[in-house]
Amino acid sequence: KQEVTQIPAALSVPEGENLVLNCSFTDSAIYNLQWFRQDPGKGLTSLLLIQSSQREQTSGRLNASLDKSSGRSTLYIAASQPGDSATYLCAVQTYNTDKLIFGTGTRLQVFP
Amino acid sequence: DAEITQSPRHKITETGRQVTLACHQTWNHNNMFWYRQDLGHGLRLIHYSYGVQDTNKGEVSDGYSVSRSNTEDLPLTLESAASSQTSVYFCASSVSGGYNEQFFGPGTRLTVL
User: Fold this and answer.
1) Among A46, A86, B48, B98, which residue's beta carbon has the most beta carbons within 10 A?
2) A68-86 pLDDT, tens per residue?
3) Which residues of B touch A89 (CB under 8 A)?
4) How far apart, in Å, are the Cα atoms of A106 and each of A3, A6, A99, B88, B104?
5) Residue B113: C-alpha distances to residues B76, B83, B107 (Å)
6) Which residues of A touch B33 (CB under 8 A)?
């Protein structure tokens, strides 16, 4: 059974820092991995999707990498800003299904 | 613009009542999903559908049902609401066939008293 873990559960950093959020999964047979952002009381916004054949994806200050063989993904946020404060969720789509399995998220706070 | 909407956004009901949460998407996606989000558990899959007349159980399906009569809608019904079903419910949709992004609705906050 696929299990997804995110470390750390919470992170508080000063503005301007570069930071790394971690996601690990137990079954490497995946179609893709998605990173989402969730603001308090809101829905999920898709940030990046990495297909199983890819090693990384970039969007603005965000870079996500995928090492399928070791069951790990990292989300790198460059030059963090207070507006980046949110919960970040990763989810994997296990091979041969269209379902997502979610981690429990990392709550990020960036203070001025 | 295509979107996915949920209604109501907030609902308070009593134990034992039947409740239906609506989900409507204009992406023309074949796949639709219902999740619940609870502290400490993250998002868990309740039911999902890969197309019209197709429905499948997820990991926490007890006490819930869905039906898919058209491409756009997947209503979620709580047959007899229980306090343990107090949660935030999210609907999502995606193109079928793997490798595709899921898009999420804004969520419905349900309180069962």
Assistant:
1) B48
2) 999 999 999 999 999 999 9
3) 42-43
4) 16, 6, 21, 18, 19
5) 19, 6, 19
6) 99-100
